[in-house]
Amino acid sequence: DITSHPERGCIDGEPVTSFELVNIQVKIPRELYRTWMQIIGCKGLSKTQGIIDTLSDYISDTGNLALLEYWQKAKAQKHKSG
Questions:
Q1: Which of 53, 33, 35 is closest to 45 using CA atoms?
Q2: Exposure pattern of 32-51 as b/e (b: 16+ CB <10 Å)?
Q3: pLDDT digit string (tens) for 19-57?
Q4: H or E element in which residue 10 lies
Q5: How far, in Å, CA of 82 to CA of 64, rounded?
Q6: Where are the alpha helices (H) located in the chain, listed in sequence order?
Q7: In 3-state terms, what secondary structure has residue 15?
Q8: How far apart are CA 32 and CA 34, in angstroms?
């Protein structure tokens, strides 16, 4: 729900208007998958929409964004000194 979560669909605060599609295939525990399917079903989402929604939530998490920012700064410092 974009009204309650305006950061969804944004990367670094900028709206994502187009995606280069990537095909992913992973194995996850059955119970995790079953629960996830129930949640996206309650939201009326397809599997594709559910994956996008889940990844958007994960990426928008401030702790994950802080970790990414730290990693990017450390990487830039490494390249400067190396």
A1: 53
A2: eeeeeeeebeeeebeeeebe
A3: 677 788 899 999 999 999 999 999 999 999 999 999 999
A4: strand 10-11
A5: 27
A6: 30-42, 47-60, 62-81
A7: strand
A8: 6
